[in-house]
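Extended Data, panel c. Modelled sequence:
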Amino acid sequence: MDQIVWLSVLGAVLALDYAMVGQFMVAQPLVIGGIFGALLGDVPNGVLVGALIQLIWISIMPVGAYVPPDYTVTGGVTVILTLTLVSQYGFQLGPSMVLALGMSIPAGVLSGKLDIATRHFNVRLDQSAESLGSKYGLTGIAWANLAGLGPAFLRNFLIYLLWLGPGVWLAVKLSGSLPAQVVKGLGLVFWIIPALAFSVILEIIAKDRVHWWMVAAFFSVGLLLLIWPGKIILALTTAIAGVMVMACWRRK
């Protein structure tokens, strides 16, 4: 239980980088997967799970007043549940990730809904910041900003804690009681996830013209997986790097 509490604290701190503090990209599922993987003793699988979630949600961005489901929380909870099932209980990676992802998506949806609710508090806090700024200068504004971090941290901490506490127990029970056919089906879904992720990427590309180097990057990743099947993490990392280049190209 102590481990779940500390992981929840870390997950809530990392989630602040999503939109409120820094925005150094440490809240991205790919990075969170590596961090939690290092803490749980399974960096490769942590990065792999984080990379897949990163690709699925790559087109979702909190722009303007739009508050999407929090893929940072979804990614973190999915990685922790998956690695717990694989490392501590010996379950297969594919079915474990699909099961964990299904359990974690509601956590991201809830975090997004609560984010909208806490923005009413932020409106009142903005009004207080004006008076504090006029009275104490930048120090007063800084304290007002820090006060705004409290609800966001508490929200994500409680979501992590509520999902990981009973979630680990429930995931272990489900994984151990599922029929072999269902486990096999979940394993097949795991291999479909990259196709879903690349369909999202192709949808982004379809809004602009397709350049020759995009097609070359896509087929080079496929060729890499064909020649070195064990280098899937390297291939996914290459794919994510290519997507970032494409995003920069489109913004240019």
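Residues 2-177 form one domain. This feature is highlighted in the accompanying rendering.
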